[in-house]
Amino acid sequence: MREVLYDRPQSLTPARFHYCPGCGHGVAHRLVAEAIDQLGLREKTVGVASVGCSIFIYNYLDLDMQEAAHGGAPAVAT
Description:
- The chain is an alpha+beta fold.
- Helices cover 26% and strands 13% of the residues.
- The chain has 2 helices and 2 strands; from the N terminus they run H-E-E-H.
- A two-stranded parallel ribbon has the order 1-2.
- It starts with 24 loop residues before the first helix and ends with a helix.
């Protein structure tokens, strides 16, 4: 019998991360997806990402997403 050691969170798409080796974006995306699933907020969540590598989060999280200008994500989210 094989024990499941890793299960992809429902909010995380099956797309492979493209970030540079050692970058923490992939880990952060997985932690956010796990938290959204555990709290049951998937249908109530809208993600906001600003310019830069973080903008690609819309490829990895199965959520409604909004892009924002560089540094403007907090204002757009508010």
